[in-house]
Design brief:
By secondary structure, the protein is of the alpha/beta class. About 45% of the residues lie in helices and about 20% in strands. Strands 1, 2, 3, 4, 5, 6, 7, 8, 9 and 10 form a ten-stranded mixed sheet that branches. Helix 3 runs parallel beside helix 5. It is globular and about 50 Å long. Bound molecules: guanosine-5'-monophosphate (G) (2 copies), manganese (II) ion (MN) and sodium ion. One guanosine-5'-monophosphate binds next to strand 2 and helix 3. This is Diguanylate cyclase/phosphodiesterase with PAS/PAC and GAF sensor(S).
Length: about 250
């Protein structure tokens, strides 16, 4: 268990850093990336599974995510200045941040200060968040979308919501949880995934498959009509400098 004081000092010492995991299209070409938080502590890389839930128990998560958004927005602005081709970057938002009072204003201010195009910022929300405060979230997402910022439902299929619930979500992308991709060799799972992709298409929502690790998984998903792919088969999450080099090669 990490002490709150330790997490606070990590925040003040700028020890939370974004790693970037590109996602690709059907041809394997980069079409964007997800920013994933890491705690860099004395050259050790601590994964979010070891600290996010502790952060979420207090309001500290709001400050950490606020600073994280700042880092990502400033990275986008930096690449633009250096003439590196821009790609949309998706940031995960906790339920606490989504419910924090001035999230919209804070994000828009950062975008203005860094002079970036809103098209290059996306947010990911876990399915579960919609169950808690649907009306609030619905309004919030619509405000962001009016500004050109798009949203994904993360870990889709692991929450409690049914497929019919999807029709009510004002989102642009749906990320199919890794657990389904892992089980694609099972016929029932394949049918579920096919239905998710079909229904999303009917609703004009793009699908992103998470945790794609094998060529077989990639082929099955492509055949089903999935449009974006993320996973170790293509790229692992990488530090900002590596991500920048990767984009510069292109
Ligand atoms: O990067 P990794 O696969 O270890 O991420 C583990 C989990 O942590 C994922 O569910 C991911 O969505 C979550 N995560 C990564 N960065 C953030 C963040 O900045 N905020 C929140 N709330 N979750 C994050
Ligand atoms: O829940 P969320 O989708 O935000 O988090 C993605 C998590 O999955 C990150 O922690 C990332 O490191 C991890 N991840 C990404 N691609 C793969 C993969 O192909 N295999 C596995 N096992 N984990 C992955
Ligand atoms: Mn995510
Ligand atoms: Na996920």
């Amino acid at each position: 268990i990490k002490l709150k004081a330790e997490l606070e000092s990590a925040l003040h010492n700028n020890e939370f850093k974004p790693y970037y995991q590109p996602c690709v299209d059907r041809n394997g070409l980069i079409m964007g990336a997800e920013a994933l938080i890491r705690w860099i502590k004395n050259d050790k890389i601590i994964p979010p599974s070891e600290f996010i839930s502790q952060l979420e128990q207090s309001e500290l998560i709001i400050k950490v995510e606020d600073k994280f958004i700042e880092s990502v927005v400033s990275f986008i602005s930096q690449t633009k200045k250096e003439g590196i081709p821009p790609y949309p970057i998706a940031i995960n938002l906790s339920i606490k941040s989504l419910n924090s009072k001035d999230l919209f204003e804070r994000v828009i201010l950062k975008i203005k200060q860094n002079k970036i195009d809103t098209r290059y910022l996306k947010f990911e929300i876990v399915e579960r968040a919609f169950l808690e405060k649907f009306e609030h979230l619905n309004k919030l997402i619509l405000r962001f979308r009016e500004k050109g910022i798009s949203f994904s439902v993360d870990d889709f299929g692991t929450g409690y919501s049914s497929l019919s619930y999807l029709a009510k979500l004002p989102v642009d992308f749906l990320k199919i949880d890794m657990s389904f991709i892992r089980a694609l060799s099972d016929e029932k799972t394949r049918n579920i995934v096919r239905s998710i992709i079909f229904l999303a298409k009917e609703l004009n929502i793009q699908t992103i498959a998470e945790g794609v690790e094998t060529k077989e998984q990639f082929d099955i998903l492509k055949e089903m009509g999935c449009s974006c792919f993320q996973g170790y088969l293509f790229y692992r999450p990488m530090p900002e400098s590596d991500f920048k080099s990767l984009l510069m090669e292109r």
